[in-house]
Amino acid sequence: MDLHPGEEIIYEGHPSWRSVLAYYIKGFIGAVIVGAIGFLLDGIGLALGCFVLVFALVLVAGFIRRFATVYTITSERLRIKQGIVARHIQQTEIARVQNVNTNQSVIDRLVQVGAVDFDTAGSGDSDFKFTGVNEPEEVIAAVDRAKKQAPAPLG
Fold this sequence. Notes:
The protein is of the alpha+beta class. Helices cover 43% and strands 28% of the residues. A hairpin with an 8-residue loop joins strand 6 and strand 7 (129-134).
């Protein structure tokens, strides 16, 4: 990220590994099913090979999904960068942030992750959200610090 003169990073992070835990559990179950089919077709060797291959692919895909998403809060901007090959970048000025809301399901609270949703002034981009972040309260505190450091709006 290219910072403007005087701009500093207050928070930078990725979705937590705990936020993709359900994906890993589903992948494990899928790997068990594929392994069971392999066992029925040719025995334990094919079963183990199929299980290991499918579960390894699930782990790699989950890792890439997490680390290909970067959430950044600077003294001037909020930014979401997603993707490795194809890239999507979404950003807004910190001064435009009007409301910050968090959402945590019961499971999210148990694993201490959540979504932080930002309402911005005059923005048609209604889905500006940091999903699956560790300790969403820390993200809110970082936004508060950034708003205090942000230069006064012109006009």
